[in-house]
Design goal:
Blueprint (H helix, E strand, L loop, with lengths): L1 E6 L20 H21 L4 E6 L17 E3 L18 E7 L17 E6 L2 E3 L1 H11 L4 E7 H10 L4 E10 L2 E4 L2 H18 L13 E6 L2 H7 L5 E3 L5 E5 L3 H15 L6
Parallel strand pairs: 1-2, 1-4, 2-3, 4-7, 7-8
Antiparallel strand pairs: 5-6, 5-10, 8-9, 10-12, 11-12
Helix pairs in contact: 1-4, 5-6
Organism: Halobacillus andaensis
Keywords: Metal-binding, Zinc
Pfam family, one: Peptidase_M55
Length: 274
């Protein structure tokens, strides 16, 4: 069995606000340790169940957050930026299941630090189905026939995951009170939960169908302001929908849609308010 593990940060145990997920803030180094320990709980459980390989993809911000010197010695790690497929770099049809850890709710939903890739995005749509990072990444896994078997994060992303993939396992390690306050498990209890839920997910993996993406999907991104939409519309092949901040792109497959999303959001981030 080969397992793919994508690790974001906002949904990690005990992290309530940006002081924990921004490399320039005072709580960031504390959060890196918790994040690494949380990944190790999942990895250890997988190897306890005779996994042959666990590939970990650091999926937050500059994607160099996990402490490699403290990571489980048998895991493989993809770290650093820029990666052609970002949060799902390295995922292919050789994997038996994917786990998303430390994930958060999409931008237009309640949940701790909820957003979709950047804070300039209100909504992503694939053929008019609203998705966040979790949904887009699950579609890429589905393109390769790989089921998303578990999601770890706050209670809100657990609900989002269940709506997309009803039979998957969720491991909510904290409950959102507001976008910057949580009721959380301790790291020790969260680690125990993640180990148990990973084992449950692995045993249940054959009962979960991959989230198959549509053929030739249309990607639509609704931005927060018109300037961001103007920047995104500079990408060839895009259309800025009239009287809106939504930019669309007709893709040949979900992989092209995913890379289009990366380019469009990077362009949109160049918008200033001066």
């Amino acid at each position: 069995m080969k397992l793919y593990l994508s690790v974001d940060m906002e949904g990690i145990t005990g992290l309530p606000d940006a002081t924990f997920v921004d490399a320039n803030k005072h709580n960031y180094e504390r959060a890196r340790k918790i994040m690494t320990n949380e990944a190790n709980a999942v990895i250890q459980s997988a190897f306890d169940l005779q996994a042959e390989e666990v590939l970990v993809n650091d999926s937050h911000s500059k994607m160099n957050n996990l402490l490699v010197e403290h990571l489980h010695p048998e895991a493989l790690l993809i770290t650093g930026d820029v990666k052609p497929y970002s949060m799902v770099q390295g995922l292919d049809d050789s994997y038996d299941g994917a786990i998303f850890l430390g994930y958060h709710a999409r931008a237009d939903q309640p949940g701790v630090m909820s957003h979709s890739m950047t804070f300039g995005v209100r909504n992503f749509y694939i053929n008019d189905v609203a998705v966040g990072e979790l949904g887009l990444n699950a579609y890429v896994a589905g393109y390769y026939g790989v089921p998303l078997i578990m999601v770890g994060g706050d209670d809100r992303v657990a609900q989002e995951a269940k709506q997309l993939i009803p039979n998957l396992t969720t491991a909510p390690v904290k409950e959102s009170i507001s976008r910057s306050a949580v009721k959380t498990l301790s790291p020790k209890k969260a680690g125990e939960l993640l180990e148990a839920k990973t084992a449950e997910a692995i045993h249940n993996r054959k009962n979960i169908k991959p989230l198959t993406p549509p053929d030739s999907p249309t990607l639509r991104i609704e931005f927060a302001n018109y300037g961001q939409a103007e920047w995104a519309n500079l990408m060839p092949g895009t259309e800025l929908e009239p009287n809106s901040t939504t930019v669309s792109f007709q893709a040949k497959d979900i992989l092209e849609a995913y890379q289009a999303m990366l380019v469009m959001t990077e362009l949109a981030m160049r918008t200033t308010f001066n």
